[in-house]
Amino acid sequence: MILNLRVDHKIADIQSMENISKDIDELFWRLQEKYSIGEYIEISTCNRKEYYIHNDYILEDDELLSHENQSIIIEYGPSAVIHLLRMTSGLESMIVGEDQILGQVKDSKKKANKDHHCGRVLDTVFTKAIHVGQVVRNKTNINKGSVSIGSAAIDLAEKHMGNLDDKSVLVIGAGKMGKLVAKALAEKDLNAIFVANRTYYVAVELAKDLGGEAILFADLEKYLAEADLVISATSAPHTIIDKNRLLTIDRNYDGLMMVDIANPRDISDDVSEIGVKLFNIDDLREIADTNTQLRIKEFGEAENIIDDEFNLLKESFKIMEVEDTLASLRVSMEEIRQRETQKARAKLSDVDGSAKILDNLTNSIVNKIFFDISKKVKNAAKQEDKDILEAVEYIFNFD
After folding, report:
1. What does the buried/exposed string (b/e) look like for 40-50 if buried means 16 or more CB atoms within 10 Å of the residue's CB?
2. Among this protein's residues, is 46 annotated catalytic?
3. Helix H segments across 186-298?
4. Per the residue annotation, which of 3, 14, 46, 182 is the catalytic one?
5. Pairing of strands 229-232, 257-260
6. I need a labelling partner for 139 at 20 to 30 A (CA). Which of 8, 231, 345, 367 fits?
7. Tens digit of each residue's pLDDT (9 = 90 or more) over 176-205
């Protein structure tokens, strides 16, 4: 069974998501303790926290899945897989059509492979999901001219500050999200742009691309004193800016706007108490809704692609189910071939070249017989002909 545990922007605001993400982690580890889950992939972004699990022993009515936190979405089998296909296609993103989720899913799969907990089933499902995301983007306009979370943050800033020309901007965090912010800022005629990151050389590289200036994380207060706009997108597990930190800086905060697009959040809510205009991911929803309306006509075509690819995936799984039986059959046939070949060799030991002739002949016979059997078994699997599959399993059960 494939199981999906998740929380995302559709059912939770940023604060709820932070809390529910911890609940999902706890639920996963309790399932892990009970079932020794060997195959799983975790996806964690600013707008979602998900686990995909493959385990044939977890029951849908397990008491652990009757979770007290109703904000955790739990889906099984086809529903879980279709959600993944929709997600990689950009249909489940806050910013519909954004490309970042596809890269995030690839990274999650890569990490699971590296950590040795992405088995054959999830590898097949995620490979298909990544393929579907690429096909949808190639065959529809779902991502044409699409904004990202980073560019949406800039749109939000312009909505509240007006034109950003001649403004001083501080970007905190030079990871993937920080780069998206920087890409959007590069199109503006700014007075100055500063990039801070805990790893200084990463900030240097990004600042170079922008024509901005990299700063040391330790010098953050100096640049917070001068910035008109601060956009923060680090991967820190805790807040890095709060009211007390800002109060150590001599400046008027009434003109400062901060946009926090990190999850967990980088900036504490209490900065609003001293006049800072603070916004977070939840405040991007209006811009996201406008973006969705521009792409709504692409949904139908994208969903048709998803349906077609899901049916192909189901066929792949049907064939996977009989591959073990076919593998056992192939091994058994090879054992018979070698045994009978040895007998024939003993009888023809005085004939020159007989060993090679016999080996080629028996190989050819087995390959031709196995090809026909394999083809018919796979067709039966695709057509879900249980009578034939059960008969094959019974006849070729060599245990």
Report:
1. bbbbebbbbbb
2. yes
3. 200-210, 220-224, 243-246, 285-295
4. 46
5. parallel
6. 8
7. 899 999 888 888 888 888 999 999 999 999
